[in-house]
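Practice problem: Glucose-methanol-choline oxidoreductase N-terminal domain-containing protein
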Amino acid sequence: MRLRTSSVAALACLTSALPRALSEVFDDPSQLPDDRTYDYVVIGSGAGGGTVASRLSASYNVLLLEAGISDEGQMDLMIPARDIFTGPGTKYDWNFTTVAQPGLNNRSIAYIRGKVLGGTTNLNYMCFNRAPKGDWDSLANITGDQGWSWDEMQDYMKRVERITDPADGRSLDGRIDLDIHGNSGPLSLTLNGWEDNIESLIVKSTTEQSEEFKYNEDHNSGYMLGLGYTQSTLLHGARDSSATSQIWPYVGDHSLDVILNAQATKLINTGTEGGIPAFRGVEFARSSQSTRYTVKARKEVIVSAGAVGSPQLLLLSGIGPAAELQQVGITAIVDSPHVGKNFQDHPLLSNSFSVDTKGAMNNDDIMRDPALQAKFFQEWAASRTGPFTVGSPNILGFFRVPKDSDVFQNATDPTSGPDSPHFEFLPFSGFVSFVEPPPTTGHYMSVLTALLAPVSRGSLVLKSNNPFDKPIIDPGLLNTEVDRHVMREAVKSVRRWAMSAAWDGYILGEYGDLAAAQTDAEIEAYVRSHTATVHHASSSLAMGSWNSTNAVLNPDLTVKNTKGLRVVDLSAAPFVPQAHPLGTVYIIAERAADLIKNDALKLQPPLHSEPILSSALGRLARLTTSQPILSPFNIQGVLDAVARIV
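Answer key — structure tokens:
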């Protein structure tokens, strides 16, 4: 609809008496004004929550609750190379621990989850995969919603991202297929900004053993198999998290309030709608001793607390298996048997080799030398360049178990298709292990192997009805023979790769317990004693079809048998993606935002939408009071917003 000049002028005059649109960051729950009202309350600021909050806040009033502190000024989070120091045992981490894992010889392991603005996107290795085509098509089939298929999700994949130049200015040609990527999304994707001493050797190995270890120009094409350059969430040599890409750019522009140090303690049952329990309220607090506050959402509460936090919150709120809830003194409001079940993760094993670097520096030198660390920190601080711009392997590899293997002779292949990977290589120039201490001398190369399509399933249950008690986390790592056999095949694959002529004169031999593990039984024993996790907690609130009785969520991510409640994070995936799942969560959240907005418009068309009117007028107020010169872009944005309501 075309706006008359007189209408715009009249609205502009009215805005001088209107309050500015809501957009503040509070450090404590007590700071939230009593008169604030919200259309949506989002719990958790990771890839799911940050994306949904920013997208919705363009048209609606949104409150984002984050249990942790701000990410601002936290150098450990900003510097990619510091990612190994962000958890466990830090102020950024929830500091969870798993129960003893039978598949890991009954070891319990620290379980990293982000407790900071940006969530785990501020603690991870920044690897961005869309996941293989088969994953998305399987998701569409499981849910009965073809909108989740690879072809239908292409626009959302591109909407997330923009490709930027790496910190060292290297060419992207042959390393990223620019034709398949977006160029205007909020999240920066690029290559790592420093070439280590094994990068060229890895590329060379793909020409010498091309049948098994071929080169893949872009793992995000839907076809992931092969070795190719890592696409990382980096911008100008620094981490680009959910906080830096999805939240901070919109504070002050959108109708988005953020409360830090605000842990959601319960979803509030606000009555019934059509005989179905509604959950449009949230209780939250700073700590177990502090005051508890409540806030209501006029439209929906969106839970994005991750595969640990989200099921925990539903259980605390009376949504879960009735018998289990009764054991901890909670009366079930919605008997949902599968809440906290189907828990999955990617086991991770470090395989190390002694190497001769021929005098070239590798990460072992940096880790042992405080002077080198100081030098490279100064380089990063001055120009955002150098080794500290690297937080993940420069190159990743994705592979399948060889066709002649007997692993699936008596078992079903767990991958999403014949082009989806069973396992991954993560090659590091230096010693990397989450189980063994680093050697004090020598030089090493570590090839971590991750199991990507686990058959094992775990669970999450409450320890008590106290929301500040940590839940009981059991990811079920390597609990099945099939998973242990696939990881055994991954070790054998690493050994075959290490025999490439590209490594002649560089690899001297296998290091430690790897060298002693030769028979299948010995390899499996080595696997069980040395495996940890990539911390890719997933699938504990799995979605399914509308009529599924085995799922927690509907295909649109709403919680079954409830009103006003939706989950947007990796807990919603029916199976853990056969890839680094960071990209999957961002992409799911982009579609989720559209699903939420579409549902809102069905209930309340834009013509009568108070939130849109408030947002449009608030935006006009900000522009007329704080920006003496209006750019054409801002003017058009205001006109578009007002046109929807006039």
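Discussion: Residues 1-20, 605-646 have pLDDT under 50 and may be disordered. Students who identified this feature from the tokens alone can consider the problem solved.
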